[in-house]
Each structure stands twice: as C-alpha cells, then as structure tokens.
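To close the section, here is one more complete example, presented without commentary so you can practise reading it yourself. The ligand is PM9.
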Amino acid sequence: MKRDRVKHSWAEPYKIKMVELLKMTTQEERENAIKEAGYNTFLLRSKDVYIDLLTDSGTSAMSDKQWSGMMLGDEAYAGSENFYHFEEAVKEYYGYKYVIPTHQGRGAENIISRMLIKPGDIIPGNMYFTTTRLHQELAGGKFADVIIDEAHDPENEFPFKGNVNIQKLENLIKNTGAGRIPYLAIATAVNMAGGQPISMENLKELRYVADKYNIRIIHDMTRVAENAFFIQQKESGYSDKSVSEIVKEICSLTDGATMSAKKDALVNIGGFIALNDYDLYEEARNLVVVYEGLHTYGGLAGRDMEAIALGIAESVNDDHIRARIGQVEFLGDLLIHAGIPVVKPIGGHGVFLNAKKFLPHLEQTVFPAQTLAAEIYIDSGVRSMERGIVSAGRNKETGEHNFPNLELVRLTIPRRVYTQAHMEVIAESIESVYAGRESIKGLKMVYEPKYLRFFQARFEKL
Ligand code: PM9
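Output:
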C-alpha cells in the first residue's frame, strides 16, 4: 500500500496570512528585565520576550474564519445570536445538554464549586490544578489526589498517566462516605502532570464507580481534544475513530464540565459550564448572573462567543490536532536526543523540563524550576513557566510549603503560532543552559501573595 505522505507528516494544515513582528533583545537587556520582574516570568513585559512559551492559554492564533466571525458580533445585552451559535457548537461537538458561558475557566470553576461544595467536603481528582483547587478550598472543600502513582514520576513512560487509581478512589469514598463527596473532578490531558491523558477504559471504570456511589463526575475539559488524540493513537480499539467522535464519547461519560476555551478551543478569551442535569443548570444559570453576567453572555462579548463556536469545530479536526501535538513532540524529541531531562511521555500542550534532575544541586526550597525558567529567559528570551513548589502553594492547614514530587519548567506551545525553526532555537537554548547548569544558583522568595502565589511572587538571586 502506498503511504499517504500528507497524512503521515505533522506539517501545519494552514498557511500564514499575517505575522506579528518579534523583538530581539541582548543578554544584558534580558538580565535587567528578569531582575526587574523579580525573577518571575509572569512579571515580564511581553515586549521583552522573544518566544513566548509561558502558556497555551489565550495565546493561540485564530483562523481567518474565526476573525471574520468576530465581525458578526451581535452585541445585544440579552439573547445574542452568537450565544445560540456557541450553544449549538457545545451541544454538537461535546454532547452536553445545557451550557452557560463564563469569562474564562476559573469563572466556571467558581460557580461549580459554590454550587456543589459544602464546608468539609472532599473532592477527589486526577491531580490538582491551581485555580480549580483554590475554588474548591474557597468553597470550604478539600482536594484529594487519586491519580495513579506513575503520574508523579517524570521518568515513567506509562501512556495514560492521567488515569485515576480506582482502588485509591474507592478507599477514599468508603473512608469519607459518599455523602461528603460532591463530585469527582476529572481532567482530560492533566496539566500539572505534564499534559498527560486519561484513557477511555479508565473513564469507563470511573463512570462505574460514580454510578455505584451516586456521585457526579465533573470534567475539566480544557484540553479534551488533545486527550482524545492520545486515545486515538495509543488506546486499543480507537485508531479508526476520529478525534471528534472520541471527544464526544469522553464527554458522554461525565455529568458536566468546566471549560477554559482559551486552550483547546483556539480563542483568546472565554469559557463555559456545561451540564446535563436541568435543576443544576437552572441553579448555575442563576449564579452566573451574580459573578459573570447574564446567562446568554457570561462576561463575554457576542464576538467572543462566535469565535468560540468556530474554534470548537476547528479544535476537533484530526489534521489540526495531529499537527499541534506533532509540533510539541518534535520539540520534546530534540530535547530527549540532547540528553535533557524532561517529563515522559511528551504531553499534549508542552514539554516539561524536570528541574530536579536538571539542577540536582539545588534544594527544592531554593526553587529550582523558578530558577531554571529565569535562566532560560536570560539565555535566549524564551519565556517558560514554573510548575513546581511555587505553583503548589502552601498547605491550607499547616501553612507550610507543599512539596510536590514534580518540580517542572513548562515550555508551553501556543497553538498555530510558532514554526519548526522556533522549536529548534528553543532546544538550542535549553541545551546551552544545560551545559552551564553547575554554576546556576537558586532564588529566595521576597514577596508572596496569599492566593495563587506563582502569578505574582517576587524573588532575588541567592
Ligand atoms: N490554565 C495554564 O497556563 C492558565 C492559567 S494558570 C497558569 O495552564 C485547567 C486544566 C487549566 C486552566 C488554566 C484552568 C483555568 C482550568 N483548568 O485560565 O481561568 O489549565 O481560563 O482556566 C492555564 P482559565
């Protein structure tokens, strides 16, 4: 059989119509900029950044169709046409019955947490996410990690490191009592584990357990299409299914969802809550008026909802997702071949450097991942993000740092933004920092905000 060359390649299924010029800086300028930013890449000005791998959130390039959709914004306060397009897209591609827009993912998390969590409740999930856990805690709940142990080991190459340890979950339910568990918080493409997928088999087992104990599953579907691609590539029985079909099957195993449309759905702003239960929907629709806006705009402009509707359809296209994940894997492979310690397997939305192994001479208390992100920026102007002890925050009860096993720097790849040559420059820069790693010293934290400290904390060089 002749190999289909086009289908085999991860080459981008689009061409470039407009470009944004980047500024090249000198090392001296970058040293000054990161010092002024308190060695926190979140506090850099984007004009001082060459290749921006801080996040894949809201940083995607929209298509010409999405931009033209923006021109059809119906900016009515209530009942905007764009809301109905957006609602149709969510129903068609994800299959949930009811949807309420929110300004972004955490807006949806706030409402779900307020609505479902009572003080003292436990919320089991497949690894914490920063904003999700904070909203659970603010509502009086406590997150319990029931992800498989492999997820906490950067070297373990198990293909579905987003899976839940079903035994751990059942033990927790029995010890806590199902009545104290408002829902299972299940993410697809688990961010903090390195963008690692959950398998369909595990999701089916979760559905079985949830039904047995009469507990809901709330799906963090921020990167569901990326997860679906891994299922198509790696799980038996799915190679002939489209990403779109797999996405719908994943959603069908859950009762509701929170979404940050800024990732998978290829837009710069937006999110939503999706639910199958009418009574819950009614309550959420009422709460959204308090925190986000009327239930037909939820903090978004009409044009934003139109862009989401079109972005959802583009995001589940097989060619799109193969190129998106192909590019991330390309960078991952360059780094692996250069002997750089990274989280394996390479995940969906970025390559995660293992800072504990990159800088083994630094204790976790001097913030190795924070330090490494600053050093990479100084080397080349590539902006990355800490995903380690700073992101993990403090234990709510003891006030001590949480010490996560994973001390990572995330090189997050925005969708449809950078080229293969950019990936090569990034890899060269990481290699150069790796070559000089022994002379790198850690940081001390000199300012620590109360909530989500990684966004605004400031550091000084030791
Ligand atoms: N994720 C990210 O860069 C942006 C902010 S945190 C640095 O990875 C999941 C799985 C996310 C996520 C955001 C949110 C919150 C919820 N769940 O940022 O509020 O990755 O739209 O979404 C970020 P919003």
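Once you have examined the tokens, check your reading against these statements. The mean pLDDT is 97. DSSP finds 17 helices and 14 strands in the chain.
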